[in-house]
Amino acid sequence: MSISRRASAIALALGSLAALPLPLGRPLGHLGHLTASSRRPPGHPAVLRPPAALRPFSRGGRAGIWRPYGRVVRGTAAIYETTLGLPDNPAGVAGIAWMDMRLLRARLYSGSLSPGGLMWHYTAPISPHAARSLVAAFNGGYLLKDSEGGYYSEDKLVAPLRRGAASLVIYKDGKVALGTWGPGLAMSAEVASVRQNMRLLVDHGALVPGLSPTDTSVWGSSLGGIANQWRSGLGIMASGALVYVAGVMNILDLARELQHAGAIRAMPLDMNPYWTIFSTYRPSTPGGLAGPANGTDLLSTMEQSPMRFFSPAYNRDFVALFAA
Known about the structure:
Radius of gyration: 19 Å
Number of domains: 1
Helix content: under 10%
Low-confidence stretches: 1-36
Order of helices and strands: EEEEEEHEHEEEEEEEEEHEEEE
Largest sheet: 6 strands, antiparallel
Structural class: mainly beta
């Protein structure tokens, strides 16, 4: 249904958890508070240490050695990437990206198909002004009809935010939180965007119950009914760093890779070959324009190229990371 023709309602965790009617476009700042973000507590260092090498799942496997990618921020690499064999399939490979959110700020870009509508200020293509500080971008979640969750951005509530849904929350200052919507993760005046998608894969550092290596529908519809399909997921570490994982794998492998990379909470993002993409950009000069020519995909086997986020035809939501 068109978001310009109807109002939505949102249930927020405010003691009684009463459903509060909310017209589209009305700010939500008076309705709650948000915790568990990547903001830096007083006295903590301004940047994080680069991540330690990841041990392989199998004996004799190759360790995941991190290497810096993307635009340098304040003289420091903000993103490191590696590859690692899959837990039950050493021949398979997961691409893993680690993001220092003390050096980066996030922004949710919306599309005419996902979440829908044509009123978005932040939408593809990324503008030349934004490209001067762009470091990386990655895919969002499922279409809303498949996401089992809601969507809020640019003061517009496209679909009601669902209690219990896995949620990526982006503050107006570009910092992030990731977890289950409900107690401890709720709306506030500081929130710029909320993107919900399914349920958490990892919570309190542990895999959630119900994950199955043969699943092709519970955690998203797998193309061709094949369990080992292109999948992606996003996690947050105790340090506040984000970790993104993608590759051809089943949902259990995705969860285990996110957990192994250090995520204490993690959620699934979009899946199937056409949608999973993570690209970094490194112009030749510090303030140079990011673009397809200086972009690199997390995995060379990804179907889409760094051009995706600069294409006016791209109509899905995605997350862009900028130098803070």
